[in-house]
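idk why but the lab printer keeps eating my pages so im just putting this in chat instead. protein + fe (ii) ion:
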Amino acid sequence: MTDLIIRNARLPDGRSNIDIAIADGRIFALAPRLPLTANAELDVAGNLVTPPFVDAHFHMDAVLSYGIPRVNQSGTLLEGIALWGELKPQLTQDAWIKRALRYCDWAVARGLLAIRSHVDICDDRLLAVEALLEVRRQVAPYLDLQLVAFPQDGLLRSPTAMDNFRRAIGMGVDVVGGIPHFERTMAEGAESVRLLCEFASAKGLRVDMHCDESDDPLSRHIETLAFHTQRLGLQGRVAGSHLTSMHSMDNYYVSKLLPLIREAGVAVIANPLINITLQGRHDSYPKRRGMTRVPELIAAGIDVAFGHDCVLDPWYSLGSGDMLEVAQMGLHVAQMTGQQAMQQCFAAVTDVSARILGLEGYGLEPGCFADLVVLDAGSVIEALRLRSARRYVLRRGQIISQAPAPHAQLSLPGRSGIVDFRI
Ligand code: FE2
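predcted complex ->
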């Protein structure tokens, strides 16, 4: 006897009429029409069932702070960083925890059950670190929160960042972060990458650096990150986030760079909502899009995930925790409109993100955690098109969120009924 059987599911790979049996919080069996009984059954009527969404790049310490103390007038990354510097001293730990927990509620309702969040360690009080460690503890039953020690003001540029960084890792922050393009010189940027990779190697930690988030085609810290990853044997544990300068790089140089990233086993995390907003702000027309070269990276055999990056904060005035919105924007910006390319965009907010975070027990195989999302869609592509409702969200086999299918009732001359956008 199993705890729950989900009947009549469609899977992301297109298989249909699949039953998923769940026991002790894990997937026990998954096959067409399972001849099993259970304490409870959930017939999902052909709807898409996927593992949960995973956000590989977020800033939970800044979430829901939009407009405090003012809005970003220029819309640039640099004004956003300056604004964040104004805001930090005003924030209290209680406010940090409250805003983060509120966002985690939004995330759960969106089927987003794992988030890698950077946390700024440049405030000597480390209040944000303490706050997000407390949030990580509180949400652990329903959401995997991974924290990255992020020296927002520069590891070498900010006088106390190195010491704060070590303290944050000692307090339990999971991942080594960095921001080489914000150091004073290219040489100091490269030095910060070396120091951080050696630190991660010594401590056995993963690395995820903001890297080359710039329109400057000569910002090439990803090359240094790939070099030290290979030198120190960190393959599979390192990610470069943003990499927007690659958009503007010379094609010949990129043809050398992509194999280096591939050989080093460095993953890439693009942030389409934010980079289409922040990049190219110094351009007249034509304006560059600024997102890194997603289809080319994937074609080179490199893992590429999409992150949400920001929601209602100094850098971004919109957002709601919906990774389908993120994937849809990535799809548009990268012109990934082919069938396989759209599947890759979905994977960039699910399977690939999970692999980059190193999540245990993620997936749709027997033995995986029964962490599942039932979408009001018949396929991955329909889910992307409609940003479908998350009808049920399950964590360890328990329903933790549910929502009705959205319906509009038409009243037209001579015709009325329900609008159904599904094909
Ligand atoms: Fe970021």
